[in-house]
Records
---
Amino acid sequence: MCSKEQWPKHTLAKRILEVWRECSDENDIDAHVVSEFRPQDIAKIDIDGRLAKERANTQAKASIPIRRVIFPGVHLSEPLKRSRWMMLRNLYRRTGSDYSWTELDRTFTHNAIITKFIAPGAETDRDAVTNLTVDLLSRLPSMPPPLPNHILLTEDSIAGSWLQINANSYSWEDLPTVQKLSGGVIRMGISISLTYNRSSDADTKNLESHNFRQFLDFLSDLIDGAFHEFEKGPAKYNNTWRWFILITYLWSTWHRCLALHY
């Protein structure tokens, strides 16, 4: 179980409130829905604008075929495979030394997940949902299961990344991508808490479960794609470690969201 030292409840409560306010949008949510949590359409995810430029160039030169992408997971059309591949590449860039865990988490959460919550109303209601979310997150295991394949590190292999650790003695628990709760996990926790005690005539449970499962499948496909890049072997820029960082971030988010949903 999660230790208080790792995720103190007062720290969790503060983060939950910050995320809640960040995602509150009373003007753009159906009246009968108090929360919305689902993956963004992969075709609409364009983190750095590169996909839009590529599409514009392809349309301007109709003879240029869409670039083929070998991407495991669900069957997608070539344009969607390309969209998902470019999303992974943009997340991979956030593992570079110019970025941080916070920027990786913010980039993924803000681009990959649609979250809309009713803004906190009465203080007592806000506190009740916050406390329930804290309880849900506190029940999560302190660490997700380790990946089946660790990588052998050298000092050279961790160069160029914001995650600098002792290459000879690191452990799974040392990785901040494993230690920290990602924004996606917190958003799912809030979404569950907001609807936990709703009236029985609010017939949205099936849709919410479908959206949660869609998000889990979305994450699973991204993990498969990142593994595909990782398993290409040591590439020319020592980028295996950086793909490993991204995989551990996605893996940890997937496992914790899976535990919350089921």
Note: The chain has a mean pLDDT of 80.
---
Amino acid sequence: MAFTPIRLVSPDGVSVLVGNATDRETLLGRGYTPEPAPKPAPAREPERRPAPKPVDTKTK
């Protein structure tokens, strides 16, 4: 079974990359917590352009 490395944060605020399940469980028992997931980037709004002017179809 493969283990995906995760980041844990110590009670002092130090971030640690944990490479195996044994270390993860040991550090969790010592008060480390999983690092919060990064906030997603805000969605970009589409570029707003002025509406094109209507074409005058009337002939004089």
Note: The radius of gyration is 27 Å.
---
Amino acid sequence: MLKRLLFSTLLNLGIIVSLYYAFIAYNKMEYGILAGAILLVIVLVYLKIKILQQVKNIKKQ
């Protein structure tokens, strides 16, 4: 459970940092970096949803 909590925290941090870089890239018109940051946010949100589903299933048992 501690491992999942730490992973969830790291995912949150990664999402926040990626959104920050996406914002900076948009302001500087660096669309390649913007696309990469948005793709990274999508992947991290997907992983966050999966980890939350695992924690929910553990709590049910």
Note: The chain has a mean pLDDT of 94.
---
Amino acid sequence: MLILLTIPFAAAFGTATHIRLEHQALAATSACGVWALSAGTLLVPTTPTRTLLRRKRLRQWAYEWKQLDTPPG
């Protein structure tokens, strides 16, 4: 869609505006790509850590509930 919008601008204002719009589109696409890669880079290592901590917490809860079920003494 961006390419379709740049064609009339290029015809009306010359190639300098067309090239500028292409550079802006390229910059926006690059920024989105960098954001996606950095978000993935941060998310991938934290997911196994959260899973392991969740398992540990659930095991601790199960142990505590089991202790509550046993009679004292």
Note: Residues 35-67 form one domain.
